[in-house]
């Protein structure tokens, strides 16, 4: 198995899950420029990470990769307790992180310069407010829980990555104590530490 990742990108979530499975795997770090190369574009025409290879089969899209890993390594228990409702809860929060929270970061990653300075500033302010609301929902979900769905799952590393983005961008997460405690737990996790070190983020 091989994962293509860029340091600190959303592919870090897949890297952490691979660490949690205990499986043998390889990680190839690629830069933004390398993701535009013909070789990489053959793997993923979108020029994005993560890209995952398993015995010659190539899979893209974060949610698909994370679910594949959960299914391939059921002993890691990263997809709920085996019941349909538990699995649906995991995918509910994974979908929220992937389809709602992640895109909300886009204006803050410098993708609005074409709008002009004033409009770009307004768009970034609106994105920051939207993200604050999303993180408040996530903080409420973590009340009384160590993990988003009660037990460790494939959704938790995605949340961790987005919390790292929020900190790097200086977003206001004040008062969100459940998220702060979650971040501390994840920072101390051996699998998380191993993935961070492998990506030069330790």
Automatic annotation (TrEMBL):
Check the record and name the CDD domains matching this protein.
Answer: GST_C_Beta, GST_N_Beta
Q: What are the residue boundaries of the GST C-terminal domain, all occurrences included? A: 83-202
Q: Which InterPro entries does the entry mention?
A: Glutathione-S-Trfase_C-like, Glutathione-S-Trfase_C_sf, Glutathione_S-Trfase, Glutathione_S-Trfase_N, GST_C, Thioredoxin-like_sf
GO MF terms listed in the record are: transferase activity
| UniProt KW keywords | Transferase
Pfam families (UniProt xref): GST_C (PF00043), GST_N (PF02798)
Record-annotated GST N-terminal domain positions: 1-77
Q: Which family does it belong to?
A: Belongs to the GST superfamily.
In its UniProt entry, what is this protein called? Glutathione S-transferase family protein
């Amino acid at each position: 198995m091989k994962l293509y990742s860029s340091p600190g990108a959303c592919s870090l979530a897949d890297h952490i899950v691979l660490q949690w499975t205990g499986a043998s795997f390889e990680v190839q770090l690629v830069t933004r420029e390398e993701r535009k190369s013909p070789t990489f574009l053959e793997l993923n025409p979108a020029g994005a990470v993560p890209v995952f290879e398993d015995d010659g089969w190539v899979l893209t899209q974060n949610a698909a990769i994370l679910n594949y890993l959960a299914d391939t390594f059921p002993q890691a228990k990263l997809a709920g307790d085996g019941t349909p409702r538990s699995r649906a809860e995991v995918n509910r929060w994974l979908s929220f992180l992937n389809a709602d929270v992640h895109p909300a970061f886009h204006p803050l990653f410098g993708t609005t310069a074409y709008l002009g300075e004033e409009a770009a500033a307004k768009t970034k302010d609106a994105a920051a407010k939207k993200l604050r609301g999303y993180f408040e929902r996530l903080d409420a979900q973590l009340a009384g829980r160590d993990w988003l769905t009660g037990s460790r799952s494939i959704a938790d590393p995605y949340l961790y990555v987005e919390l790292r983005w929020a900190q790097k961008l200086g977003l206001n997460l004040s008062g969100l104590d459940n998220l702060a405690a979650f971040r501390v737990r994840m920072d101390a996790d051996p699998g998380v530490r191993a993935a961070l070190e492998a990506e030069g983020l330790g």
